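Chain X:
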Amino acid sequence: MTTDSLQDRVIIVTGGASGIGRATVELCAQRGARVVLADLSQSEGAAIADNLTAEGHAVRFVACDVSDESEVENLLAATSELGRLNVLIACAGILHGATVPIEDFETATFDRVLGVNARGMFLCAKHAVRAMGEAGGVILLLASGAGVTSGSSSYAYGTSKGAVHGLGLVMQGRMGYYPIRVNTVAPGSIATALKLQNVIDVGQAAGVSDDEIRRRHAALGDPIGVARVLAFLASDEADYVRGTVFTR
C-alpha cells in the first residue's frame, strides 16, 4: 500500500487517544488523511493532535462521550468543517467487571460498559451514515474475539462486543440503499492499556506470579498491527473485503 493511500480522506477515529485508536490516528494521518481524533481524554487527545499537526499532518481533537447522542452529533458537526465524512473508525471501548461472578455483577457496571461499547457504536454509526448519505463511505466497528468467538473475563465486555458484532452484521446486510461498506474488526490480544490492566486483574484473581503476568504482557500484540488492518480497510484497496475481519 502506498503511503498516501488515504490522501485527503476525512476520517473520524473514536477512542483515538490510546491503544489501537491512537495507533490508527497516527497511521491514517501519515497516509494523508484529515483525521478527527475523538476521545474523552481531553489532555491526551489534544496533545496527540497537536504533536501530529506540528509534524505537518491534518489532525483535530474533539472531546466526545460516544454514549451521549448530543456529543456524537457535535462530533459530526465539527468533522463537517473539514469536509464530507469518508470513514468512521469506531474504537472507543471500556472494560469493567473482570472476574466478577454474574450473581455479583453490578447492574450499573453492566449498563456503563454497554453504554459505551454498544450504544456508543450504534450512535456513531447512525450519525456517520447520515453524514455520508448517498455519497457513501466506510464504517469500521471494533469488536473483539470476546463475545464473538470466545468468552471474556467480564460479562459486560463480552456481551457488549457480541452486540457490536451483531450491529456490524446487520449493517453489512442493509447498506444496499447507500454505497457504504461496513466491516467489523475483531482484534485478539493486543497490548492496549485496557488489555494490560485486564491481564493484571485476571492474573491476580487467579493467584499467578508477577513473572507470569509479565510473560503474558510480553506475549500481547502491538496495536500498530491492528491499525494497519484498519487503515487498509479504510482505503479503496479493501473494496472487495466483506464481513468480519479477525486479527491477531
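Chain Y:
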Amino acid sequence: MCFKPQDYKSDQPVRWCAGCGDHAVLNSLHKAMATLEVAPEKTAVISGIGCSSRLPYYMNTFGFHTIHGRGAAVATGFKVANPEMTVWQISGDGDGLAIGGNHFIHAIRRNVDINMLLLNNKIYGLTKGQYSPTSERGFVSKSSPYGTTEDPFIPAELVFGARGNFFARSIDVELATSQEVLVAAARHKGASVVEILQNCMIFNNGIHAFVADREFRAERTIHLRHGEKMIFGKNNDKGLVRDGFLVKAVEIGKDGYTIDDVLVHDAHTPSNFLHQQLAMMDGHDLPLAIGVIRDVEAPAYDEEVSKQVETVRARKGFTTLRDMILAGDTWTVE
C-alpha cells in the first residue's frame, strides 16, 4: 500500500512556537514514514517531557506521552511486548540526557530496536530557559546567570561510549538530510540514534547558526554518505584525509593533495575508531558531520529476548504462565 505524509498527521493543532525547529522535524518525520510505507497502525511514537515530547500528539499513529526522561524505558518495554511494531522515541537534550540519561545509554547498550530522535537545542525550552546537559561551558541562562561551570555532554560521545551501532545527525533546516537519516534509522535493526540540531527561537535563538546558516553551511558541514568520498565546500573542493591516526581537512589540488587522498566513508565497518572522530567534528577546525555516520549490524535486544523465550518454552514445555508457576514445588494452604 502506498502512503502519503498526511496519512501520518493527526488532526491536532501544532502548538510549538512559530519558527521552532520542531516544525521542520515533524515535517521530515511525516515524509520519512511515508517513504518507509509502514502503516500508521503498525507505528508507535513515544516521548518523555519537553517541547519535543509533544510530537506524539501530531502523529496519526499509536502514541504515548510518558513521564520525564522515561521515554526510552517505555519504548523498550513496548517494543519487546510488540516486536512487530515500528517504534520511534522522541526526546530533547534535557529529557534525554539529564533525567533520562541512564535510560538513553542502556537502550543503546542493549541495542533495542527503537529509533531514538534526540532534538538538541542546548536549552530547556518548556521550562523557560534553563541550561541543559549540552549547553557549552560559560553559557548564561536563567539557571546560570554568571555562566555554567560545567562541560557539556556531546551526544555522539555518549552513543559511542555505550557501544552504539547507529548514529546519524542532521540540522532542522536540512529537511532532505533529516528525511534521509530518519529512513536509514528505521531500516536499521537495533537501536538507532539521530541527533537533530534544532533551533529554539525564544530561549536560544541562533545557537546552531555557526553551522546552520545558509551563508556558510557548505563550508562548515560535510554530508557523509556510505561509499562516497568525504568532500565538502561550496565548490566541493575540500576533503578529509588521514593525518596519522586522525583526520584533517585539506583543499583538493593544493599542497600535493588530490582526490585520491580523500577518504571514502564506510558507515558499515565494525570498528568505530574513525566513526567517533567524524562524529566529534564540530564545524570549527573540522566540518560538522551530518548524514549517517555509523550503521553496523548487531543482534537486537528484543529479537534475542523473543528467541530466548521460545527456546526456554520449548525445553520446559510451558504453554501458559500458570504452567510455569506450577512447574516447581507447590504446597496447599488450608
